[in-house]
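Hi X.,

You mentioned you wanted examples for the new student's onboarding notes, showing what a folding record looks like when two proteins sit in one file. Here is a clean example. The first protein comes first, with its sequence line followed by its C-alpha cells.
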Amino acid sequence: MNKKILVIIVMMLAFMLSTPYVLSATQIKNYNSGDKIPIVENEKGYSTSDLPGDTRTDVTIQILPFNPPITISQYGGNYQYSIEALNNESTSVSFNIWTMYTLPNGSSYGPVFGPVDVQLPDKWSAYREDLSDYVTADMPGGNYTYIANVGIYPDTIWNSDSFTFNKLPSSGGWYLQNPGNDETLEGISFSDSENGWAVGYNTIIHTTDGGDTWSEQDDGIYYNQGYHAVDFINSQTGWVAGSLIIKTIDGGNTWTQQYDPSSYGINSIQFVDANNGWAVGGEIDTYNQIYNRVIIHTSDGGNTWSTQLYESGYYYYDYIEPLYDICMLDTSNGWAVGAYGAVFHTDDGGSNWIEQRLGEYSDLFGVTFIDLNNGFAVGEEGTMIYTTDGGNTWSNYTLGFYDNLNSIIFTDANNGWIAGGGYYPYHGTILHTNDGGSTWDFQDTGTGDFEYQLNDIDFVNNNMGWTAGSTWYPFEGVILHTENGGGSSVQPILSYTPTSIDFGDMYGSQSNTSTINIWNSGTGVLNYYFYPEAAKTWITIDPDEGFSSGETDILTVTIDTGGLQPGQYVNNITLISNAGTAIIPIYVTILQANPILSYSPHFYDFGEVPQYQLVTTNLSIWNSGTGVLYYWIDDSGTFCVVEPWSGHSDSGQVNNHTVMCFTSGLSPGPHQCNLTIYGPIGNTEIFTVYVYVTSTGFNNPPNDPYDPLPGNGTTKGETDPVLSVLVSDPDLEMMTVSFYDAADDSLIGTDLNVMSGTRAYTIWSDLSINSTYDWYAVAHDQEASVQSDTYSFTIGEQTNEIISMEMPLNIGFNLIGWYHGYNTTASSLYENISGCLSIVKWDPVAQDYWLYLPGFPAFDFVINPGMGLFVEVDEQSVWHGEG
C-alpha cells in the first residue's frame, strides 16, 4: 500500500475516534444511500499561507459526473456523480451543501439535494462518490445544468461547481408517477381529476393532486391485509376489498371493516350508487383441489352483504375457479368474468346469474360494457372477446401478441383503454381504441425498458387517466398518468435478420455460435422474447428477451451438438413480440465422426538427473481425425505427474501437457514409467519416460544442527513449547531429526523427511512452570548421524497469544506465509484451503521449487514456521490460517 495513503487512513481513523462530535451532523443522503461522509485529509497540501487574501470563507466544492456526456432517454433515467467539499481555512468551519437545477427554459429548480449540514476541521474534505438522481419521463426535454453549492443556504454561496446533461423530449402521453411505496399495487380508483386511491398488499395510498404526490392511509387493522380492488363514488365515500371489505366516508382518513369473507378473497368491487354494490372473488384450495367462485351484493352501502352466487368444485372436472372482475351498468344489468373464460350475466340485480360462457378457455381478468349490447372482456396471453348482443354470443378478437391483459375501461362509446403486461421481458402494455373497439393500437407508456406490469386502469374523462401495477423484483408500486388520453398511438414493427441460420456440417460434441439482430423499425417500444418451450436442448439464445426503441439488439445463438446422432436437424425457434410472431429455422447436419488420437513425442529420456530433483518436458496431443477427440492420461503408480491430465481436441487442435518427473525416493540407477493415454474405444497409446537417477557419490554426513528455538538460555511463556533447529546436508539429502531430553536421553519427538536448509520441529508437552530444561537434536541422513550442542531454556509465567487472520485468495497463485509456531504439511494445508489445486515451496539450497499435488503422498512436504509458500486455487476464497 502507498505509504501516504496508509498515513491518511491512520490519521482518519484517529480523528474519527478521538473527535466523533465533529461529524455527528455530517450526513449526505439521497434516495439510495444515507451513510456518513467518509473524511480524508486534504492531499493537496494547503497551508495557512496558501489561503487567499479576501474575507470570504475559503470552502470549495467539486461535483463530477460519471461517464459524461450524459443523455437521458425520453423515458427517463438516472445519472451518477461524486461530490467533494474542501475546507481550506485554518480553523473548523460549519456550512451547507445543496444542489439546484437550471432548467431548459433558464429557470431554477431546487434544492434537488440537501441542504446538508456539514462541519469540517481545517484542511479536511467531505466527499461522496455514490450519489444518483432520477430524471422522470415527464420532465421537459432540453439541456439541464446541475449545480452544487457550498455556503449558508439559501442566500450565501461561497463556491459552486456544475455539469450539464441532456434530456430527450418525451414522445408519449404517459409518464411515471412516484407512489412512494414498496408494495405491489393491484387496484386504482379516481373520483375526479385530483382525488385518487391505489391499493395492494397491506397498502392504501391516496393523492389529492392528481398523483403528483401520494401518502399512505392507515386502515386501522393491525395485521397484514391483501387488498386487490378499490372503488370510490366521490371524494369521500369508497370501498377497498381483498381479504376484507372496508369502507370510508371521510376520504380515507378513517376506515371501517364491513365484511370478512373468511373462506375466499375478493378480487373486484363496484358500486353504482351509495347503497348498491357488488363484489366477486373466490378461493383456490390447492391442497384439496377444491375451488370456488362467489358473487356478493349489498343494498345498504356495505353494512350487510348477501351471497348471490356460490359454486365450488374440483379443479380438473368442474372448471370452477375464482371470478376476477365485475361490471354493473346499473342496479339491474351486469356481467362477471373469471377463470376458464367464465362469463356470468344478470338482468335482475343479481337475483339470478346466468352462465353465458364456460369451458377450457383462457382466464378472463377484466370486463366492461359500453351499453346493454356491446361489451369486451380481456385476459391471459392476449385474450380479448367481445359481444354485440349482451353476451348471448361472444367472439374472439385477435391482437397478435401474448401479453396478459388485466383491466379494461371505456369512457364513452368510442374511447377505451386496456392495461396489462408480459413476462418475457417483464413490461407494461397499454392499448387504446377510438372507434368503439374495432381497432386497438399501442400507446407509448413512456417507460422504455423499465421492467413492470400493469394491473388496473381508471379514467375520469377522455384525457385524465391512471394505471397501477408493480415492478419486477424487488416488487414496488408503479403508477402511470396521462393528461391527454395517453397521447398518439404507436406501432412497433418487429424486424430481424437473418431469417434463418444454417450451421452447416458439424460433428457430435461440438459447439458453434451465430447471431440474430433484432430491432424496432416502427414507433414506440418493441418487447420480444423467444418462446421458452420452443428451443430444444441443443440451442441456446442469449439474451432470450429484450426491448428496442429503434436500436439493434444482437443476440448470440449457440448450438451444442453433444448427444446428437448423425443426421439432419431443424429447430423452428419462435420469436414472440408485441408486434407479432416470427419463426426462425435453425439448421445443422451432424456427420459421422472418426477422431484419431495422435501425440508427440512417443517417449522422452531425461538422461541423468540427481536425486531429489524435479524435471519437466512437454507432451503434445491432437486429433488427426474428424469430430471431437476426448482423452485422459493415467499417471497413477508412476513417478511422473501430467498436468492437465485430460482434454479434448477438435480436428487438428493441438493441446500441450506438462510431464513432471520427481526423482525424490528413487534409488540411483535407471528408471522407466509408462503413461497411458486413453482416447476413443480401441484407441490407446503409451508415452514412455526414462530417467537415470544419479547419487551424490560418497555420503557426507549432515552438518551439526544449529540455531535452536527456543534460544539457548531464554525463558518461554508456555508449558508446551515448540523445539526447532536448522539442519542441512552437503548431499542435499532428506533427513530424520530427533529431539532428546538431555537429563535422561529420552526421546521427545521426531520430524521426518526434513529438507536440507530447512528447520525441524517437535513439541515438548506438559512442562512445569519455573523449571529449566536441557535438550539436544540428532540429524540422520539414513547413513550417518550428527548431534547438536545441548541447549537449555526456562518455563516462566504462562501467556496466551491469540493470532487471527483473514487472507483473501484470488484465482491463480497466491503468496502466503505459515505463521504458527509448529510444523504442518502441504497435504494438511491443502485440506484447509477451499479450491486448492497445488502448493509450491522454494528450496533455497537446491535453488528449485518443490511441488505438492493432491493425491500424490510422495510429493508431500513439511511446512515450517515462517515459511513462505505459493498456493494455487481455482476459486476466490479467504484463508483464516488453518492448516
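Then the second protein repeats the pattern, sequence line and then C-alpha cells:
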Amino acid sequence: MIRAIFFARYNIYSLFKLVPLFICAFISSKNINAQCDLRFPNLARAFSTDIVPLGPNKCQYTVSVKFEIVTNSGFKNLFFHSWLSQDYPNPPIFDCSGSTPAVNPGTHAQLGTAIDEPGKSFNDMGFVGLNELTFAPNVPVDVTANFATVYPHDHSVVLNSPLNSPDVTATVTRLGNSDTLQFSITNLKVILNTPCGTPISIKTDIWGSNSNAPDPKAQCYICGQSQSFGEVTVSLQKSCTSLPFQYDLSLISAASTPFHVVFRLYADDLDGIREPNGDDSLLFTSDTVVLTPGTFTTGLTNLPGLFCCTEPFDQWGLYVDVTAREFTNVISSSIIEPGCATTFTLPVSLRSFTAARNNSTVLLKWETATEENSRGFYIERNMGNNVWQTLGFVSTKAMHGNSNSLLDYEYSDINNAKGITQYRLRQVDIDGKHAYSPIRAVRAGSQKGKTIVYPNPSNDGKVNVVFADVNTIRDVSLMDMNGRVMKQWKGVANNNIQIDNLTAGFYTLRIIDTDTGEQTVEKIVVKKR
C-alpha cells in the first residue's frame, strides 16, 4: 500500500506577496493500487520565493521536495507527474478505482515534449538505480546523479532534471536501521502556464516500479491528488500585551463557492519544527465553519490553559492547520515565534532556526533572508538552570554585513547533558546592538527512553507508565489540555503507575525527579470509546 503526504511551504498566490504558508494534502487509500509494496508516508513540495515571470501567462518557480520511501523488496524507479487541474488527463493515465495489474505509465500525449508545454504536465521527475546504492544509517548520500534524464516509457518526454535545473541537488538518508529512505531535493525549476501570483489547483500522479526492464510498467501508483494553492489563505497573530495572552485568526477565501473548513490551533514546543502529530500540543479544534468568499475571523481569543499565562508554555510558538471537505489540502500558517518576545529588533530577518540532536552532538542550523549591518551570531545555551552560557561566535556571511539573499549557517555543540537544553542566537550588528532569536530546545539523548507510556493512544481510558530509573523518587502530575491538574502522585518510589478512568482527550503527564529537579513531560492521547 502507498500512503503519501504533500506539503507546500508557500501558497502560490501569497508567493507574490512573500507571505509563507504551509499546505499539505493527505492521500486516502481508495486512490491507491493495493498491489503495491512501496509506501510514501511523507511527501513534501515547497515553492520558494524565487519567482521569474516568463510572460503574461507563464511563470517559473524554484521547488524543493522532501519525501520518504518505505520498501521491503528493493527500489528501482520512482516518477512524479503534476498538472494544473484543468490540464489533468481525461481519461486519466491510471485507474485507481480498485486493485489493478501493472500498467504502462503516461506518454507525451499526457506529459508533453517540453517542460513548459501548455495543456500538459508541468513537473515530470524521476529517480532510477537507487537499489544499487548502499545507505548507512542516518548518513546523507548524494543521489543527484540518479535523477532520471530519460523517461523510459517515452523518450520524447522531457523530464525536470539537472539538464534543465543545473543547481538541483538530491540526497537520500536512511532513517536508522529501518527500511525508510528520506529524500531531499532542492532548487528544481518548474514552469507554470499561469500568471505569477495566480491562485491555482494542481493534480499529481505518482508511480513506482521495482522492475529492471528497460521500459518498466507502473506496479503501484497514486492518482489525481488535488492541491489548492491560493484559494484560501491564513493569517494568525499572537497578542501578548497583557494576561491572558490571546490569538487572532483570519481565513480569507478567494473562491467563488463556499468551503466547509475546520481549523486546529497548535503550540510549537520551541524546536521550530511543525509536529502536529508529534511533540506539538493541540490547543483547540473548531466546529465546521462555512467559509464564503471574503474573510472569517475569530477576533482576539484567549489561549487555553498554561499557554495563556504560565512560562515556558506562554512562550511557545503558534500555528494553525485548516482542512476542508472540498479539497484534500491541509492549509497552515507559518509558526509564530518567538512567543511574546520583548527583545530589541535588529535589521536581520531570521527565516529559520532549528536544533536537532544526533547522539552526543546537537546541530544548530539557521537561515537569514536579509541582513543589514550585521556582524554575526553568538550561540548561547541554557542547561536548565536559567543561566545562558556563550558557546561560540559565527561571523556573518554577508558582504560588509549586508545581504538580500538567503544565507545558511550552522554550529555543532557537544552536549551530553541530562534533561532539556535550550539554545538561542544573539545576533549582533556592527554598532554593537543585539537581539535574541526564538529559543530552541532539545532533550537528552537518552531522555525519551526513561519513560514508557502504553498504550498510547489509549482506547479504553487506561494507560500504564513505566519509569526506567528504578532508584529515583518522583512527583507525578496529570493535567488536561486546559492545564487543570486531574491527578497527582507524590513520592513515587516504584517504577510504574497505572492511570484509569480517563475520558477522551489530550493529557500532559509531568514527572519531576525530587533529587535533581529534572522534569520530563509526556503526552497522552485517549480516543473515544
